[in-house]
Recover the amino acids of this structure.
């Protein structure tokens, strides 16, 4: 893994490299995605099933596209009971964390007859996309579904690609049932996003689409935004570790590799004030690569987007972390809580040598659907807030409005909106 001295040039080159991973850079796929979306919008089920056969090699019909209760029961028979037990423990932690995010409507009433407030309403129907293909992620099912359930969403619809026999991975089905999914459809890719955004004869239109996917899914979500809401346009996974000389190089190396194994576009970066630690981490990485099952993927990821940067000061390391705004940020220093107070931009922050990133991926409770590609500068992790909407409440008595009506009329006339002014004025015209 390359070791570089951190300076303005290396930081600029790093940021340029990371930007290449953004879904916004893959414009050559946009035409194909638009074609799929438009065809499903017009032809509905016909196009949806044709694309499923083309891309997933599975023949589906309106009668078989929906996962049945029998298929879910069959999945439970195939899944290791120990995994079911772990899923249930994870659900308890995730639910406990997200229940603290729940909001309530509120109203303020004043003696003059003024009532102001905010009404919280859960979304009616939400679509959850769950990837298939190279890897299966039941943990992502939990992270997407549980906040929606806590928010009070009326119907949670899940879509996920089938295998050639038209079956869905048993682990995914068990996680979906345990988390509280209402209905599951065996479709994936951009065509599934189109179905959730526009609706077909078999799949109802949703109000919002959440969940990660490949580049086609990411671009499809971006394209349908406006027809429906989306959580974000997710990019490849990434981790940044801030460490000083007190860090355990074996732990640091293991944590960097935990994200590099996702895919060839994943990014793993160490920023440290210790050249000795940098060199030891590089050696540990090479040792791990001799035994890890996804070593080929990891090596490609590290060759393209893996960096060890050595900074002169911890402030310089923190500034770099804030500029990169990583999805996952680990702080392995003598006083990680002190460094944490200086971090402005990160999706999730892990403090200390026993809070490694996979703890957040699977079990601790905070959501692992996080902003990527620098969007942690303005986006937050998926939460209960993503599954509600807010309505403002305004009520004035005649007496309350009478005190301010001339001010409102004056303001409206200053904007030359005389009908606005008149709407207030007519309520007191008998006094003129």
């Amino acid at each position: 893994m390359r070791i570089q001295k951190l300076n303005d040039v290396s930081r600029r080159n790093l940021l340029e490299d990371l930007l290449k991973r953004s879904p916004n850079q893959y414009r050559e796929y946009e035409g194909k995605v638009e074609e799929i979306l438009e065809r499903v919008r017009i032809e509905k089920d016909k196009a949806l099933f044709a694309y499923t056969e083309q891309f997933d090699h599975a023949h589906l019909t309106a009668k078989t596209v929906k996962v049945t209760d029998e298929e879910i029961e069959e999945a439970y028979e195939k899944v290791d009971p120990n995994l079911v037990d772990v899923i249930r423990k994870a659900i308890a932690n995730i639910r406990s964390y997200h229940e603290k995010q729940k909001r309530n409507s509120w109203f303020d009433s004043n003696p003059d007859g003024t009532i102001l407030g905010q009404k919280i309403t859960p979304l009616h129907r939400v679509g959850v996309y769950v990837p298939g293909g190279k890897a299966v992620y039941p943990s992502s099912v939990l992270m997407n579904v549980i906040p929606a359930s806590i928010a009070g969403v009326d119907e949670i619809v899940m879509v996920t690609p089938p295998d050639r026999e038209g079956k869905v991975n048993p682990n995914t089905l068990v996680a979906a049932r345990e988390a509280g999914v209402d209905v599951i459809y065996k479709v994936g890719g951009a065509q599934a996003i189109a179905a959730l955004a526009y609706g077909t004869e078999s799949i109802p239109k949703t109000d919002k689409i959440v969940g990660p996917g490949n580049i086609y899914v990411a671009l499809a979500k971006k394209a349908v935004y406006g027809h429906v809401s989306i959580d974000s346009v997710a990019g490849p996974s990434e981790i940044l570790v801030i460490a000083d000389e007190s860090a355990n190089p074996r732990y640091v190396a293991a944590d960097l590799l935990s994200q590099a194994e996702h895919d060839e576009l994943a990014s793993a970066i160490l920023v440290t004030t210790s050249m000795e630690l940098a060199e030891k981490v590089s050696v540990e990485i090479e040792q791990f690569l001799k035994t890890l099952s996804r070593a080929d993927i990891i090596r490609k990821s590290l060759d393209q987007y893996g960096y060890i940067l050595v900074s002169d000061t911890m402030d310089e390391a923190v500034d770099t972390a804030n500029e990169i705004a990583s999805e996952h940020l680990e702080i392995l220093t003598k006083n990680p809580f002190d460094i944490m107070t200086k971090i402005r931009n990160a999706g999730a922050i892990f403090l200390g040598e026993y809070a490694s990133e996979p703890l957040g991926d699977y079990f601790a409770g905070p959501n692992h659907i996080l902003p990527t590609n620098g969007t942690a500068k303005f986006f937050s992790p998926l939460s209960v807030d993503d599954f509600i909407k807010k309505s403002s409440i305004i009520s004035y008595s005649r007496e309350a409005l009478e005190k301010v009506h001339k001010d409102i009329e004056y303001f409206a006339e200053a904007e030359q909106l005389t009908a606005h002014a008149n709407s207030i004025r007519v309520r007191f015209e008998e006094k003129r």
